[in-house]
Amino acid sequence: MQEPTIRFVIPSVVSSHFHIRDGDIVADFGAGVGNFIPELSKRAGPDGRVYACEIQKNLIETLGNIALKKGNHNVHPLWCDLEQERGIKIPDGQVDVGVLINTLSLIEEKDVAIAEIARTLRSGAKLCVIDWTESFGGLGPVPEAVIVAADAIALFEQHGFTFETDFPAGAHHYGLLCRKN
Fold it and tell me: CB-based burial of residue 112 (10 Å sphere; 0-12 exposed, 13-18 middle, 19+ buried)?
């Protein structure tokens, strides 16, 4: 008997829930190795811009090189510290769509990070949050770091966001769409 395939977060599938339009300014807060960058770039289009925000300095150059090789000329890698006031190098109110993927559970200073993300989003902008529902077989966060969806919603609502809907995000993950007030 074949074991069922576990389908983790698939960028091309879940990004359809982000409702990115051609020309949007998008920020991937915690871009990591850039798994979502090609899809975000495609959806923002040649008139859009994608900020790949990452704290690991060694990944910034890598993200830029990968984007250039793939022809994603609208991608702009930025060294950013989400947990520092003004640590995201994007001006106030510029971003149309923000994404926070498998990062919330890693953030220690959640209040600072959410306020900093909110600073970069324009009024009415969307914030799409995907994170782990559990610690799964040694993957994802340690059990005590997991932020359940209800707690994530409450946290974002405390910082001027309105929860709009949830969406399927793959096995062991939840997806939330919030809007900045």
Answer: middle
